[in-house]
Inverse folding.
């Protein structure tokens, strides 16, 4: 170290090498000062003493060993530097519904003014479902390719956003993220709703099972796309033993074995009660009834949803948000922006339609106030303008 100080060589951590610079001994005043300092030291000279020449403040050993020390974050987690593997991008699934009469009932009334009847209801609805992330924003390509889904929800309109639509949108989103960002790993975050958590029709479920054999138990109820219950009988299963082999839940003639027989095949003691009231077992009991014991088995407790299975087969993980967490993730702020933009668009849509029909600013303002409950202006607009002496 004393040699480095005298010769003026420099050691850099970035290149891990010694770079030769101009020697400090070329400075005559510094050379004279060093000679006097060495004479004062006498026989006690050392490289460390020469290195400390001119330093008035004490350098702590912890400061010198800082780069060899472990560091922790504010949350108490150990900082390990860059982790191996690819960077993970989290995509949130956002589904927002906008109504035609959003914030259209805001007005001032005199305290003595009588109440006037008006059409109640939120009006026509419009749904938008899309993905966004904190790193790249909304999932959309530069050429307009997107995984957005638009719908006018309602029984007599476009129907409702079902699990089939969610899986189709997830497949489109996977195609898009693999095309735009192939160098990252992706995770889809969805709301914890029954539409997202829907499992296959043959998925295992311990609820409403009979304790003994039954010829009327055919597993889960199958629903048609229009919401009606299908009359097709669907058997559940099969389950899985601890060794990985399949366990059939039905006899060859189609009769359900019953929970007692299923647990006996696993060498599990069968409780006396078949199922607690409305399947609400008292925690932390896990063996209070037959359904609770069967529900806590690995094959019954780890049933994947259709969305999870579809995305996992394509290399994308799916996670569901816990309940009552909407205010703590980015979707809440995005919804506020979307609602504000939608309201502004609804307010300006009538002006744009009026300008397209050849009206000026005064006529467009009158028409927007006159037909404030309409999405577009009616065909009788010109006659109404003429009657109001505005045309």
């Amino acid at each position: 170290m004393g040699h480095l100080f005298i010769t003026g060589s420099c050691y850099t951590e970035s290149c891990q090498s010694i770079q030769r610079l101009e020697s400090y001994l070329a400075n005559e005043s510094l050379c004279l000062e060093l000679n006097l300092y060495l004479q004062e030291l006498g026989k006690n000279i050392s490289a460390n003493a020469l290195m400390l020449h001119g330093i008035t403040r004490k350098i702590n050993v912890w400061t010198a060993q800082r780069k060899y020390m472990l560091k922790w974050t504010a949350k108490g987690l150990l900082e390990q530097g860059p982790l191996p593997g690819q960077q993970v991008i989290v995509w949130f699934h956002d589904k927002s519904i906008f109504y035609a009469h959003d914030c259209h009932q805001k007005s001032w009334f005199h305290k003595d003014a009588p109440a006037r009847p008006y059409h109640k209801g939120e009006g026509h609805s419009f749904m938008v479902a899309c993905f966004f992330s904190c790193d790249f924003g909304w999932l959309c390509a530069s050429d307009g390719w997107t995984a957005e889904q638009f719908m006018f929800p309602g029984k007599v309109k476009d129907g409702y956003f079902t699990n089939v639509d969610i899986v189709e949108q997830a497949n489109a989103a996977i195609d898009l993220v693999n095309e735009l960002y192939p160098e990252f790993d992706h995770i889809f975050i969805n709301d914890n709703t029954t539409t997202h958590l829907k499992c296959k029709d043959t998925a295992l479920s311990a609820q409403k099972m009979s304790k003994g054999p039954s010829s009327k138990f055919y597993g889960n109820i199958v629903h048609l796309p229009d919401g009606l219950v299908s009359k097709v009988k669907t058997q559940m299963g099969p389950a899985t033993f601890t060794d990985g082999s399949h366990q059939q839940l039905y006899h060859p003639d189609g009769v359900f074995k019953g929970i007692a027989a299923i647990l006996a095949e696993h060498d599990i003691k069968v409780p006396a009660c078949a199922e607690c009231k409305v399947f609400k077992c008292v925690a932390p009991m896990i063996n209070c009834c037959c359904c609770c014991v069967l529900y806590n088995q690995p094959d019954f407790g780890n049933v994947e949803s259709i969305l999870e299975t579809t995305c996992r087969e394509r290399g994308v993980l799916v996670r569901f948000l816990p309940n009552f967490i909407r205010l703590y993730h980015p979707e809440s702020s995005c919804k506020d922006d979307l609602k504000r933009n939608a309201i502004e668009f609804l307010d300006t849509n009538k002006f744009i339609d009026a300008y397209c029909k050849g009206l000026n600013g005064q006529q467009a303002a009158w028409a927007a106030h006159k037909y404030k409950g309409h999405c577009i202006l009616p065909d009788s607009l010109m006659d109404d303008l003429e009657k109001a002496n505005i045309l």
